[in-house]
C-alpha cells in the first residue's frame, strides 16, 4: 500500500495523472471528446496544446492532487481545490500523433481495437449517439465543485480545440446525492462503495467503517497494489515513473420508470409485503437503495450502510441472500469465484470513476413510479485498469453478459444457469433469475423475469498517459 505522506512515494505519484489511484471527488464534470484535423499543422498544434495543459498546471500529477485534497481536509473544506483535469488518448489518437510508430504495438491489443471493435454485445456502433460514431482522438475530463467555474474551463478547451480539431461530443456529469448525502445512481441506489484501496489511510478508514478490529474480522479485503491500475507508458521514454492507465468510457442510459415498475412486479410475483418489497430491488442490485448489502441484511438501514463492504458470499447461503445474478455479485463474485476464489476475483477489480448524467425533477428515492424518467438520464461509466482485457472485459463480457455464474457454491463445478446481470448484462433484453421469497431460505428460491433497462449509447477505450509523456511530448522522436 502507498503511504501518501512518505516522501519516497513522491516520484511515483508525480509520474501519474490524478483520478487513477484516487477519485477527483468533484461533483460537476465535463468529458470533452475531440477529433483532430488530419493535417500536419493540426497535429503540431495538438501536441502543443497537450504540453500546455501541464505547463499551465491544468493537468496535475497525482501527487499535487493528493496534496490539494489534504489541504482541503485540513482547512475544513475552506480552501477551494479548484479545477481538476486529466487527459486520455485513444488508439486512433496515438496513430494520429505518432503515425506508424512501433511503440503503439506495445499497448494491449484490446485497447488498440477500440470499443467499437469489442465483443460486448453492444448495439451496432452505427447506431450509437452521433458524437460517438467514428474516431475520437483525445478526451479531456474536467471537474469542479463549482459549475460556473467548470463552465469557464469548458470554454477554454473549446477555444483551444479550434486550432487543431473539433469536439464530437461533450458529456456532462453531475453527482446525485440521497438524503444522507451519499452518492447514488439514477435507479436510486448508493454507488461507488466498493473500490480498490491503494493508500494506507484509506485502509484505516475502511477498517473503522466496517468494524474491523483484527485480521480475523476481514471478510473482503479491498487493499490493492498500484499495478492493478497502472502500467508502463509505452511513450514514457524510459522514465521509470512514467506510468499510465487504460480507461474505459461508456454512456449508459437508464430507463428508471421501467426499472422501478419491474422491481414492483418482481416484489408482487414473490408476494413480498410492506417493507419486504424493497428486497426485490436489493436482489437485482445486490444492495438496498441505502447501500445495505443484501448479503448482510434482509432490510435496509444498517449503520454506515453507504460504506459497508466487508462481506463475502458464504457457501451455505447459496443464492438465498444475495442472488447469483445480482449486479454486484456478477461483477465481483468475491469469495465465490470458481477456480480461484477471492484471490482470482480481486485480479479483475477496476477503479470505477463513473458519474450520473441528465437532470430530473422527481426524488430518486421517493417511492413513486409514475414520475420517473424513461430516458435522458444514466451513468457515464468510467474505469481505470492495468488491462482492459483482464479487467473491464472479463467483467462485462465473461461475467455480466453470461447466463452462467462465475460464482458457484457447488464444489463439483456444475453450477446453475443464473441469467445475465439484470443491470448491465447485454443480451436479447430478457433475463431470468432466482429470487428467495424468504431471505436466507434456499428452499424458497423462485424464478422471475427482469427485462433490460440500461442502453449503451456510445463509448471508447483510452489510455491516460504518464506525466512524463505530457511534459516531453514535443521532444518524443518517431520510432
Ligand atoms: C447504468 C449502469 C450501472 C448501474 C446503475 C450500476 C450500479 C451499481 C451499484 C448501485 C453498485 C453498488 C455500489 C458499490 O458497491 O459500489 C455497483 C457496483 C459495482 N458495479 Fe455497477 N452499475 C452500472 C454499470 C456498471 C458497469 C458497466 C460495470 C462494469 C462492467 C459495473 C461494475 C461494478 C462493480 C465492479 C461494482 C462493485 C461490486 C463489488 O465490488 O461488490 N457497473 N454498480
UniProtKB/TrEMBL annotation:
Domain named Dyp-type peroxidase C-terminal: residues: 238-404
Signal in keyword set: yes
GO cellular component, one term: cytosol
Cofactor(s) the protein requires to work: heme b
Domain of life: Bacteria
Gene Ontology terms, MF aspect: heme binding; metal ion binding; peroxidase activity
InterPro entries assigned: Dimeric_a/b-barrel, Dyp_perox_C, Dyp_peroxidase
A Pfam family it matches: Dyp_perox_C
Transmembrane segments: none
Keyword vocabulary terms for this entry: Heme, Iron, Metal-binding, Oxidoreductase, Peroxidase, Signal
Region (Disordered): 401-426
Keyword Ion transport: no
NCBIfam families, per the entry: Dyp_perox_fam
The protein's name in its UniProt record: Dyp-type peroxidase
Lineage, uppermost ranks: Bacteria, Pseudomonadati, Bacteroidota, Cytophagia, Cytophagales
Amino acid at each position: 500500500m502507498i503511504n501518501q505522506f512518505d516522501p519516497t512515494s513522491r516520484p511515483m505519484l508525480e509520474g501519474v495523472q490524478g483520478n487513477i489511484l484516487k477519485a477527483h471527488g468533484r461533483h460537476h464534470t465535463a468529458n470533452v471528446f475531440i477529433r483532430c484535423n488530419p493535417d500536419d499543422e493540426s497535429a503540431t498544434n495538438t501536441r502543443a496544446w497537450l504540453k500546455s495543459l501541464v505547463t499551465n498546471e491544468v493537468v496535475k500529477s497525482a501527487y499535487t492532487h493528493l496534496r490539494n485534497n489534504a489541504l482541503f481536509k485540513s482547512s475544513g473544506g475552506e480552501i477551494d481545490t479548484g479545477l481538476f483535469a486529466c487527459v486520455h488518448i485513444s488508439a486512433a489518437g496515438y496513430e494520429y500523433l505518432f503515425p506508424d510508430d512501433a511503440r503503439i504495438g506495445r499497448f494491449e491489443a484490446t485497447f488498440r481495437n477500440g470499443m467499437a471493435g469489442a465483443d460486448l454485445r453492444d448495439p451496432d456502433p452505427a447506431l450509437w449517439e452521433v458524437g460517438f460514431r467514428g474516431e475520437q482522438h483525445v478526451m479531456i475530463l474536467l471537474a469542479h465543485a463549482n459549475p460556473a467555474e467548470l463552465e469557464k474551463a469548458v470554454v477554454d478547451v473549446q477555444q483551444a480545440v479550434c486550432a487543431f480539431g473539433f469536439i464530437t461530443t461533450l458529456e456532462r456529469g453531475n453527482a446525485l446525492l440521497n438524503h444522507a448525502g451519499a452518492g447514488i445512481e439514477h435507479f436510486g441506489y448508493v454507488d461507488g462503495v466498493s473500490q480498490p484501496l491503494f493508500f494506507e489511510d484509506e485502509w484505516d478508514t475502511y477498517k473503522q467503517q466496517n468494524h474491523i478490529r483484527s485480521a480475523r474480522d476481514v471478510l473482503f479485503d479491498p487493499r490493492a497494489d498500484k499495478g492493478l491500475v497502472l502500467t508502463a507508458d509505452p511513450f514514457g521514454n524510459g522514465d521509470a515513473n512514467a506510468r499510465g492507465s487504460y480507461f474505459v468510457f461508456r454512456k449508459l442510459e437508464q430507463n428508471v420508470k421501467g426499472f422501478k415498475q419491474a422491481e414492483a412486479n418482481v416484489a408482487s410475483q414473490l408476494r413480498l409485503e410492506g417493507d419486504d418489497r424493497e428486497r426485490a430491488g436489493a436482489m437485482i442490485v445486490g444492495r438496498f437503495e441505502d447501500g445495505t448489502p443484501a448479503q448482510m441484511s434482509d432490510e435496509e438501514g444498517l449503520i454506515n450502510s453507504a460504506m459497508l463492504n466487508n462481506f463475502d458470499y458464504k457457501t451455505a447461503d447459496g443464492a438465498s441472500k444475495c442472488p447469483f445474478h445480482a449486479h454486484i455479485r456478477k461483477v465481483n463474485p468475491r469469495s465465490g469465484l470458481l477456480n480461484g476464489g477471492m484471490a482470482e476475483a480481486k485480479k479483475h477489480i477496476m477503479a470505477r470513476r463513473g458519474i450520473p448524467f441528465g437532470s430530473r425533477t422527481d426524488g430518486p428515492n421517493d417511492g413513486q413510479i409514475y414520475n420517473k424518467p424513461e430516458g435522458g438520464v444514466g451513468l457515464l461509466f468510467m474505469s481505470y485498469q492495468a488491462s482492459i482485457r483482464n479487467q473491464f472485459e472479463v467483467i462485462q463480457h465473461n461475467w455480466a453478459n453470461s447466463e452462467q455464474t462465475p460464482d458457484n457454491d457447488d464444489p463439483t463445478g456444475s453450477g446453475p444457469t443464473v441469467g445475465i446481470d439484470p443491470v448491465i448484462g447485454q443480451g436479447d433484453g430478457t433475463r431470468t433469475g432466482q429470487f428467495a421469497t424468504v431471505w436466507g431460505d434456499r428452499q424458497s428460491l423462485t424464478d422471475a423475469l427482469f427485462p433490460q433497462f440500461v442502453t449503451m449509447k456510445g463509448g471508447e477505450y483510452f489510455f491516460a498517459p504518464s506525466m512524463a509523456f505530457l511534459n516531453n511530448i514535443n521532444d518524443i522522436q518517431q520510432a
